[in-house]
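TICKET: design request
STATUS: open
ATTACHED STRUCTURE:
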């Protein structure tokens, strides 16, 4: 496979460390709470979006599929609701004591630490990278056993 990086026209010039735009782009399910609320935002909104993508990849589900699109800014921005972690937590429990169970548990913690309501409490991009790298190392160790 080949990875391609693209720009959907959402990039903004950076001035200082905080960003704010009158019109923000993005897909509702992946927009961080502070952006929905019209507040200043920084790189932590990307960590939030990545957490939603990771949740999708691990659960094979679409976030807020049962909610009308116009409700998402309210439930994410002000209501602090996130996609359900139940299936991921149950999978981790079912595979407890295995490498796969440990990786699922690590991913659960990673996601929960990356999509919090307070951007200051989210993991940094480097912390996300290190945790994902650790998960990959763990999975690589069992792939060699098969």
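STATUS: resolved
RESOLUTION: sequence designed for all positions
ATTACHED SEQUENCE:
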């Amino acid at each position: 496979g080949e990875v391609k990086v693209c720009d959907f026209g959402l990039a903004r010039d950076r001035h200082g460390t905080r960003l704010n735009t009158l019109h923000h782009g993005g897909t509702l399910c992946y927009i961080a709470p502070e952006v929905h609320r019209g507040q200043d935002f920084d790189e932590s909104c990307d960590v939030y979006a990545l957490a939603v993508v990771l949740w999708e990849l691990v659960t094979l589900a679409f976030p807020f599929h049962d909610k009308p699109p116009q409700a998402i800014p309210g439930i994410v921005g002000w209501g602090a609701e996130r996609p359900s972690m139940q299936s991921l937590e149950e999978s981790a429990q079912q595979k407890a004591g295995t490498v796969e169970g440990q990786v699922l548990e690590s991913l659960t913690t990673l996601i929960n630490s990356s999509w919090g309501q307070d951007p200051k409490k989210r993991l940094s991009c480097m912390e996300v990278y290190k945790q994902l790298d650790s998960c990959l190392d763990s999975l690589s160790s069992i792939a060699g056993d098969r």
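CLOSING REMARK: The chain has one domain: 28-143. The domain at 28-143 is CATH 1.10.510.10 (Transferase(Phosphotransferase); domain 1).
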